[in-house]
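Re-run requested by the PI after the first attempt was lost when the workstation crashed. Everything re-entered from the original request form. Ligand of interest: S-adenosyl-L-homocysteine.
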Amino acid sequence: MTQQLLIEKLASEHRLSEEEYRYLLEHQTEEGAKALAGAADQVRKQIYGNKVYIRGLIELSNYCKNDCLYCGIRKSNRSCERYRLSAEEILSCCKNGYRLGFRTFVLQGGEDAFFTDAFLCDLLRHIKQTYPDCAVTLSLGERSEKSYQALFDAGADRYLLRHETADASHYSRLHPPQQTFSDRMHCLKTLKAIGYQVGSGFMVGSPFQTTAELAKDLMLIQEFQPDMCGIGPFIPQKDTPFADFPAGSVTQTCYLLSILRLMIPNLLLPATTALGTLKSDGREQGILSGANVIMPNLSPNAVRKKYIIYDGKHSDRAETAEGLEILKQKISAIGYCIVTDRGDKIAI
Ligand code: SAH
């Protein structure tokens, strides 16, 4: 089957076999990528129009008990200057974000034991009471079922936990032995069963990754059917064991975004910061390939340069009215519109 026929099949049936995904990935041409992006763009417009949802990212803490080999805030990185935000600081980020028009707050951080269920539940109740029209997304890594349930009961709406790679042996090359693919998947299934809107996702171009792993990632998304899917290029961080590996590609990431849009038409699909870091118009390219979400950073300026999961992390300063205005202009220049909205998934 040719690339064009596979694109048509994906657009109409919303599923392919692993071999077919692999074929698409191995026979990527400029023309094919354009056709794919065009089809993805059309599908997204039918469901979400030209709306781009924004989420305010608040990076709570860069303390982490884990040691992911790719990540700059891994436990073993001695040169990482650690910080954690207080409840007051987090609430003041929300206040600023709300004023600017954010209606989703994403609380992300390393796996930091300081953030107990009691602390987080208090914080969640506070945020939801103050901003009942906002959604709260958590991205705090692996926790127990009891903890996920308590956080959900306290008002958390969504949870982001990328599966990182769908191949267990590849997973074990990116993480120390204590962290396993099966634990990660167990968490994702638990989150879904509790009732969270769940986001998974993977890195593109991570060390040792081939098209075989990427085809598996696509199969996992097809089977798991998450509400969101965060994908971004791997970017080396100088104080990690993967410092000398090359970064993933913007083109390949955009190609995958288009595939994901056709696979799950109403998927919430961010054009990630990592895309914008590798290329000044990377996120715009992501939107034009089918993405419909952008997650600007609302963290206080003083801690921002410490949350270095990878080098050169881009910031659009959208936590300021001026910065957000510039982002809005960039997005409207390509024919889309940033809206003030919780940005829930639209049912189809
Ligand atoms: N501790 C949380 C949040 C992790 S940071 C968790 O476990 O979910 C969010 C995402 O950043 C990770 O899921 C990973 O996919 C991505 N990331 C980490 N290091 C990266 C790197 N060097 N390049 C690109 N993406 C990276």
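Saved to the shared folder this time. The first helix runs from residue 3 to 13.
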